[in-house]
Amino acid sequence: MVSTIQKKTLHSILASKLNKLSIPPSPTSSNSGGGGGEDFDFSEVFGPLTSSSTPYLIDPEIIHSRSHSFVGPSPRFTTSTSLPLSIEQETGLQSCDEEEEEGDEVDVEEPDVEEEVQVKEKKEVSKMGPGDFVIMRVVGQGAFGKVFLVRKKGFDENDESDGIFAMKVMRKDTIIKKNHVDYMRAERDILTKVDHPFIVQLRYSFQTKSKLYLILDFINGGHLFFHLYRQGIFSEDQARVYTAEIVSAVSHLHERGIVHRDLKPENILMDSDGHVMLTDFGMAKEIDESSRSNSMCGTTEYMAPEILQSKGHNKDADWWSVGVLLYEMLTGQPPYTHANRQKLQQKIIKEKFKLPPFLTSEAHSLLKALLQKEPERRLGSGPTGADEIKKHKWFKSVNWKKLDEREFKPKFKPDVSGTDCTANFDQCWLAMPADDSPAPTPTSGEHFHGYTYVAPNPWLSNESL
After folding, report:
1. Are the beta carbons of 150 and 422 closer than 8 angstroms?
2. pTM listed for this prediction
3. Can you give the residue range of the structural domain that contains 176?
């Protein structure tokens, strides 16, 4: 059967051609069969006559891009045996895009709203730059640049964030000089692949000739280190919630073949509700299940022995760091410390750590299991991965499903006065001048092609429809 749109389209074509139809005079009245008939030339309407062996439409043309929709490829026609006509390609469905005469009704496919919004966002970010954001404060600094609190110009008034974001700025010349191009590209690529309630979300990325920019959600509760420094130590109940949320986030990364490799209190933020948020993927790497990395990276106090010994490491190294984090939350300092870096490395590789007597036996058990120097014996290294850790008796009171749905309410909430509150950030950052200072342009600029990104609109996800 012929669809409604095909019928109406062909009807429109036929009407247009009939208006131009000419009836030529007969050369001889005898050929007319008695003078009444005329030879009507319909080839202009229907096209040249076709042989009986090919009475069907030509093979449908594939449209890879259409003005009213970005869903494709799609055929112009559905081949039908009920239409023994040969229509020229130029009289196809393209006529729907032309102006219709008054009174004509043509069914046009409804535009795909989600696709149009995504295209609009891509166009928006392709034109986006530092000038689209107002710098308010400095809230952090790293090896390659600063992190600013910014407000997006012309933000949507219905946006709960009030247009407030964190803008991470990195100098290309420094990145290239330190041979960290792959790390910076990996950070951006990894952030586009993760979506988790306890991982900071990337919203935009773009670049100038001299710098890279990541626009992320601003987490206004400050760093976990800031609150740990203030309180000295956390109770086991308080540390249990934070550790469980960290385990959930790291498990999400591992399921996607990503190893963080720089877990430490400075890279864990706290939101206004008291939940922790994992950030800073500058050292992260995608590693296959059967592969290992030999890079020496991370912060020494939190680095696993196999990284320090260059034996090759995988996701198991993250679980060591989680053990160090838990130890520090419960005691106020990492299990291994020393002012001399080389001696610190030797302590981590060779020495046993001490378990404070004021901790419960369950906490002792978990710390021993996570801080195993041999990675194959470490909790979380088995075939079930993070589930080994989640089933440990220290986490017995944790409902992991409710935790991931953020129904597990932390008892401590940081003191915040608004989305742009910086009261929980160290004064050493806030006192810095809030300016994105100029930087030299590297002579080689091909390192960062394809860096631009815009996050999908969450309101158009399947869950929200």
Report:
1. no
2. 0.71
3. 129-218+429-464
